[in-house]
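ok so I'm stuck.
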Amino acid sequence: RAGRRSHEEPPFANPRTPPHDARLPMPQKSFRDAINEALHLEMARDPSIIVLGEDVAGGAGGTGVDEAAGGIFGVTKGLMTKFGRERVIDTPISESAIVGAAAGAALAGLRPVAELMFADFIGVCMDQIFNQAAKFRYMFGGKSRCPVVIRAATGAGMNMGAQHSQTMYPMITAVPGIKVVIPSNAYDAKGLLIEALRGDDPVMFFEHKALYPRKGEVPDEAYRIPFGEAALVREGEHVTVVALARMVPFAEKAIDALAKDGITCDLIDPRTTSPLDEETILESVENTGRLVVVDESPPRCSVAADIAAIVAQQGFHSLKAPIIQVTAPHSPVPFARELERAYVPGPQKIEAAIRQVMKS
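replied:
not stuck anymore, here's the structure
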């Protein structure tokens, strides 16, 4: 565990991060602002980085104010005014065009950031993602590279309906050749995005829309978080809990409630699902003997199912109880607020699962 950064540890435990003066208070920034800051820093550092998407520039005509709309969630706000319309490019409403153009630009030497309004629209540009960008380096014998970052808002909880609320990362995790990043907090979002922007492989970067306003400590400087290194968010001895994206703060609430009854848990945030830090998960299960995996996706072929299978295959000898998966039901995301609230696995459901696995 020595190399794994806990959310409880100083945020510069990672050797790739710059030193921070501990005498100075760490700035509080939202998940949205952390991503925006990463884009500002990296675009200023590297002129080959461009941004493509719907309404990422905007502002031409109408009010007469030449200001970026920043996309539907305001994540790219301010980029156009600082870097100009040649680097921050509004596109047609066509995900195939956005990702196809970005993949081609990456082959030609640029470092594009393609923004999809919602991860659900991956279906429109799936060929460009899994048949093109993900396979260029392999098919060309390593002679080409495709450093494209595809950002997409994901997840339920915002009452946006079945076509705008899905978690599509299990589908992309299954595709060889593309890295999949799923941050759960502002600090990780900035460091993981900078890592993505400096790499030479295609990256799918999923941002849970319900986390955009959530604040945390984020330094002003640029820093990198390597892919494939999980974060140990809580440390305990009874149960290993693995959670993704918005499920991480939900799991924290559940674990904190259980601590009052003397039940302590390891809480692991994988941060990336491709590559996946199997070592940290297996090591934790070896110590606790119990595993609960929390994933907002429906249960079939989910990341929860994948992690459960890895532990069942490689760590079965360590298990004291059957693995429990806490997921959404195998159903489209409901639009009705009450039904959506029941659909998303919440802290109470996670707590109940941990109590259940403790009985075995």
